[in-house]
């Protein structure tokens, strides 16, 4: 039985372990932390439970697929519900807009709220679906680094329709050309942040993202986001995957261009296959230090995605006007993104994302209270004075929420903790604390993301948000599929 070692128990590492175990490998995971999940983890504080990282769950079928592969019924392990309201939006001019999951209800809401016609929103969503249909097979579900994938008839058909993907305008240019109402432009520009990019630079191809949310839907796992991790760990353990916690891999051993082993707790471990779920930048710079001739320099030099500043607040009352997902937009979106991407700092009027899981899972907060995950987009960590930036941002956020909600929010905070790019980097080894690996701020980004296999080191594979096809839970789960398919085709050489 071939042996596979996985470095890191992030969601992609766990999914890869499940797939390789189903393919007949003996799988062992080495995880630096004392817990699985990486960014997809949770914590408790003063009677409040918080999902620490991801809060928006889309494309649940990629999770279900893992249970089905193992011959299990997904619902026996993992239960989730579709949201009727995806997100509640608050604009600075007082407009409130509800993004209903039902497309017809949503287009009517947009027409009633902004005057943008039902027909134009429908047309926009059809365009988003068209981009999905062209890009899905090419950019997401398969490796971009295997020539044979481009020779498949379905892929060739997609390639001939590439004009549809609108790669030579920015998202903002396309959205501003489409909608008359600035609020709708801002609404759709925001989707760039779903993979940590800038709508004023990212190609309009990313206008595919609204289709993923508005067509396939947004979901809430019954046990909170962290139950994605716990249910998949349970499945992996059932399949015989061995998890080792508090066990960082400190070095990869290579002989010429062949991977020969890894150093774990001072001992050498051997395997036929090694998959790194560690950020690809750190995999090279830490684990392959001294082998710089093996580094894909151009790929590692790509700009990182944005990071986040999160205040986890226990709030001593409930707000009926808020939902699970809420957005409080800034007045000047362009200025906000210029500050993040050009000046590498934070706006005094940031767009605030507020997630309250206790709306759907009441035991996440004491009775009559709510757990507020309050997040703003911030630049990746390049050595900014974060303590000063955090103190200012806290005041700006509280002032804005207090004004819009008509309540002194600061006085309602009964419990608090903060996560900033430094913490994201140190807790999950994500270079510069970026949330989604590299940014998608140019039309070549998809091609400049690291492949799921090393081009130089035989036996080394990669999964997770820093490699193809990119960050976010659905794409991380797809990276696991691509790695497992690649290993299946190549067939591991047994030692
Ligand atoms: P990671 O979660 O990065 O985990 C990597 C693991 O490898 C870690 O456990 C780490 O400890 C381990 N590791 C690193 N180095 C070593 C080593 N040397 N030895 C052993 N182990 C090692 N995505 C969404 O889909 N929806 C969202 O709403 C969303 N919001 C987000 C909000 C925040 C605040 C953050 C941080 C992320 C968000 N994301 C969201 C992105 C999503 O969380 C990530 O893309 C995804 O979880 C990354 O998973 P991964 O498998 O790449 O590994």
What would you note in describing this structure?
This protein has three domains: 3-41 and 53-75 and 223-302 and 439-490, FAD/NAD(P)-binding domain; 119-216, no CATH class; 306-379 and 382-419, no CATH class. The chain contains 17 helices and 20 strands. The chain has helices at residues 11-22, 61-69, 103-114, 118-140, 147-150, 153-160, 171-178, 182-189, 209-214, 226-238, 280-287, 297-300, 333-341, 386-405, 421-428, 445-448, 473-490; strands at 3-7, 26-30, 42-45, 48-51, 57-58, 80-82, 85-90, 96-100, 218-221, 242-244, 249-255, 258-264, 267-269, 273-276, 307-315, 325-328, 352-355, 370-378, 413-419, 460-462. The protein has a seven-stranded mixed beta sheet. It has a five-stranded parallel beta sheet with strand order 10-2-1-14-20, covered by helices on one side. The chain has a three-stranded antiparallel beta sheet with strand order 5-9-6. Strand 3 (42-45) and strand 4 (48-51) form a beta hairpin. The longest helix is centred in the first third of the chain and has 23 residues, at 118-140. It is globular and about 65 Å long. The mean pLDDT is 94. It binds flavin-adenine dinucleotide. Flavin-adenine dinucleotide (FAD) is lined by residues 7-13, 30-33, 38-40, 53-56, 248-249, 277-278, 308, 310, 424, 428-430, 435-436, 464-465, 471-473, 476.
